[in-house]
Amino acid sequence: GMDRSLWILDTIVTMAPLLGLLGTILGMFNAFQILGDPGNAPTKVTGGVAEALLATASGLFIAILGLFAFNALNNRVRVIMHQLDTLKVMLVNRMYPHYAAEPVKAGLKSRAA
Q1: To 10 degrees, the CA torsion angle through 72, 73, 77, 82?
Q2: Whole domain around residue 50: which residue ranges?
Q3: Is residue 53 assigned to a domain?
Q4: Which of 4, 7, 102, 112 has the least C-beta neighbours within 10 A?
């Protein structure tokens, strides 16, 4: 249906925190490498830690924005599908009133939780 393309946004929402976590691991790895080198001052570690925190924050920020967009678009698709279903039922009832003893009623399909 209309929601076939939403998988892309869903994938971005799922992948963003994972990529942020990967950046966090790489940033911490860099920080520990700096700590392990006797020639470096311990204050240089803050660059790796800042890199790790920035990666985490970026991943979460992208995921949060994407989740809002995904839910808004998904809701819009459901509303449009309901409107189309209602229109379809109205047209069928109007075109073929003698075939149905009771008019067909539109309704949303129940979703399994």
Answers
A1: 10
A2: 2-76
A3: yes
A4: 112
Instruction: Tell me the three state secondary structure of residue 96.
Output: coil
Global pTM exceeds 0.70: no
Residue 45 carries which side chain, given as an amino acid letter?
A: V
Work out how many domains the chain is built from and give that number. 1
Query: Would you give per-residue pLDDT tens digits along the chain (113 residues)?
Result: 666 778 888 899 999 999 999 999 988 888 888 888 888 777 778 888 888 899 999 999 999 999 999 999 999 999 999 999 999 989 988 888 776 556 556 665 555 54
36 is a domain residue: yes
- Domain membership of residue 93 (yes or no) is no
Rounded CA gap, 48 and 65, in Å? 26
Nearest of 64, 60, 62, 65 to residue 24 by alpha carbon? 60
At which residue do the structure tokens 């539109």 appear?
A: 106
Cα 98 to Cα 102: distance, rounded to the nearest angstrom = 10
